[in-house]
Design goal:
With about 190 residues, the protein is an all-alpha fold. The protein has helices at about 15-20, 30-35, 40-65, 70-85, 95-120, 135-145, 150-160, 165-170, 175-194.
Amino acid sequence: MPKESSYRHFPDVLLDFDSLYTKSLSPHVSVTEQMADASEDRGRIVARLYAECGPRLYRYAVMILTNRQDAEDALQQVFAAALSNAALPRLREPEAYLLTAVRNAAYSLLRRRRTARAAQEQFLEPAAPGCSPAERAALEEALRALPPDQREAVHLHVYEGMTFQEAARVTGDSINTVAARYRYALEKMRKVLS
């Protein structure tokens, strides 16, 4: 009969250390003391950290990500990495380390979400061969920040390959106006991209 999990309100999909490690953990020994013992098994240390910090770390990840499944993924990533981290037993403040690791994993996931969402909404063809999705998204963000007339000047000159004279004929504006819009657009884009 399976042993009842000691973390009932915590997602079972993460790491079920109860089934992996059958040695009992003393509730009177702190995690730091266990880490100081050179013979302590890293798996037991991670199991202990999971039992002590898991629910709090999960709540933290949910608050950042606003999605329980993504929070579970971030937490699983952190604890899986902790199992393979040989330096973990030498940490002075493992709880702080895990809190930072969960935060980093959550924000990385947010960045991947934002990049994926931007890739779905992209309106530009790649500006150059080998342009990464992140670079393309940043360029589109900079273009979206421009007024329409400046965005038009950039498009006609860069993407359509028109000279300022040709762009002026298309827009009905003077060459100097088109060139000025293009110059102002580049200045604004540099600020956004830097």
